Amino acid sequence: MKLLCLSNGHGEDAIAVRILQQLQRFPNPPQFAALPLVGDGIAYHQLENVTIAGPVQQMPSGGFIYMDGRQLLRDVQGGLLQLTHIQFKIIRNWAKQGAFILAVGDIVPLLFARLSGADYAFVGTAKSEYYLRDEQGPLSRQSWMQRWEGWSGSVYLPWERWLMSHPNCQAVFPRDRLTTETLLKWSIPAYDLGNPMMDDLQPHTPPISKSNKTLNIALLPGSRPPEAYENWQRITEAVTQLVEAFSEGKDRQQPANLVFLAAIAPSLDLSPFGEGLSGLGWNQTDVQTDLEVEYTRKNATMILTQRFSDCLHQADLAIAMAGTATEQFVGLGKPAIALEGQGPQFTPRFAEAQSRLLGPSLILVKHPSDIPNIVRSLLADQNRLKLIAENGQKRMGQPGAANRIAQCLMKQLIE
């Protein structure tokens, strides 16, 4: 019993790893291999007894060619076509050996799974009906081109639905219930088992002790250099605005102390994030470890940390310029404020789409100076915060999805 896992992106790799980890816990698990179609697949290195089935290569776009056509040209120049040809030959060889294909991501791994001739399952991480509609109906869109996006009756296009309804496709795992219910209309074997993105987010340290006058704010600049460093510059503009706006303490309703929890990906160096803070009035304290550096300014504390899940749980709200991290934060039932960036991932187009995906839980702003008033508005509206909490958990689902998907996959493999 063999299983080849295909994924096409850093976030997709991480989701695939969670599912494979759960599959490994079964008695007599399949023989695993993984083939990351985009990037170096470093997430798979944490798995034991899982080999990388073929060559991998980090492309200039980082996998975001759908954000900008110029990125596709750069990838082609970087060897994308040659790499894809080699990878597809490897996939076909695994299929000839009777392997089951698990495709994680979007149409690219799904298409490769179908063309392989093997039985396959698909974990759809990229698309959700929430991009087009919510439980009340279609979303209002500005231009005719935007309104045209839902022309086929689903966020998944007819050729994608054909790939999912093919007899070789044994199971489809959409990211939310609304998408599952839509796909079932086309007799697609879709299962509403949740989103693995919400797994493994348990905090590792005790909560920060705080009073009612302390506000904890997560800062999410993204995980890919150099974009994360550029996003950080924009986020620190917003932080400066907040520190100035809340430093007087004249309003008894506003927090007297601010704690900023900057969640820095382990793949990034903390030093560039600390550089420049002194010029903005921040003073580094003696609190420093390999994973954390602390700064203070007026009534505010800034903690640069690589304890990602701790940041998500300890923060009351977030200033975000990230993809997966923002969705995970919102899934914990908390509001996020997003600033538009320059890309290649967090472009204005991406931010607008993400605001549709996450609904009222994500507040999209154009200028850092707008953020203090938005924070005041959120803190003063408990009904809105309750709605945001319910919305985030509904759209992102409950933890444990990877285990539920693994159980379903084992049934398919055994049968």
Q: What can be said about this structure in brief?
A:
The protein has 415 residues and is of the alpha/beta class. Helices cover 38% and strands 19% of the residues.
Describe the structure.
Helix 1 packs across helix 15 (401-414) and helix 3 (80-96) packs across helix 4. The protein has 2 domains: 2-199 and 399-414, Rossmann fold (3-Layer(aba) Sandwich), CATH 3.40.50.2000; 214-396, Glycogen Phosphorylase B (Rossmann fold). The protein is globular, with a radius of gyration of 22 Å. By secondary structure, it is of the alpha/beta class. The chain has helices at residues 10-24, 69-77, 80-96, 107-116, 144-147, 158-165, 177-183, 227-245, 271-274, 308-314, 324-331, 348-358, 371-379, 382-396, 401-414; strands at residues 2-7, 31-36, 50-52, 100-105, 120-124, 133-134, 137-138, 169-173, 214-220, 257-263, 283-288, 292-297, 300-305, 317-320, 336-339, 362-365. The chain has 15 helices and 16 strands.
Q: Terminal Cα separation, in Å? A: 11 Å
The first-level CATH class name of the largest domain = Alpha Beta
* Number of H- or I-type helical stretches: 15
Question: What share of the residues does DSSP label as strand, in percent?
Answer: 15-25%
- Find the CATH superfamily of the largest domain: Glycogen Phosphorylase B
Report the uncertain regions: none
Number of domains: 2
- Average pLDDT figure: 89
**If you consult CATH, what is the topology of the largest domain?**
Rossmann fold
How many strands in all? 16
What would the principal axes of the Cα set say about the shape?
A: globular
State the helicity in percent bands.
Answer: 25-40%
Question: What order do the strands of the largest sheet run in, or round the barrel if closed?
Answer: 11-12-13-10-9-14-15-16
**Second rung of CATH, namely the architecture of the largest domain:** 3-Layer(aba) Sandwich
Q: What is the CA-atom radius of gyration, in angstroms?
A: 22 Å
- Tell me about the largest β-sheet: 8 strands, mixed
